[in-house]
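chain below, 122 aa
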Amino acid sequence: MTIKQNLVGSGLAPSSATAVLGSASAGLVATGTTQADALIIQVSNNQYTTVAAGTGAVIPSFTQPGDVIRVFNNGANTLLVYPPLGGAINNGATNAGFSVAANKGAQFTMVSATLWGAILSA
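prediction:
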């Protein structure tokens, strides 16, 4: 397993190690009830602790094929994760939210300009 400490210890600058492994944001609050007003995801690893019913997050539009976003829902309700405008997750409907139940996680990988693949935890 690669961890930032190992990369920095081998001589890689801390900022470069973060660029390779991604950064994390904890204690997030899901917002909005649609793709248009959901909280825009800012980093690659995201922990939501406050998730009101029907609220969500949206994958940012600046992503590129191969990018990975991880979402951990530690809130009380299901978190809706929306693709960028015009996108779909797992060949679902365009712009539809993907449900991540409370106490579950999901990894989203950009496959093409309009398709995201998702892996949901058990």
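The chain has one domain: 24-120. DSSP finds two helices and ten strands in the chain.
thats it, cya
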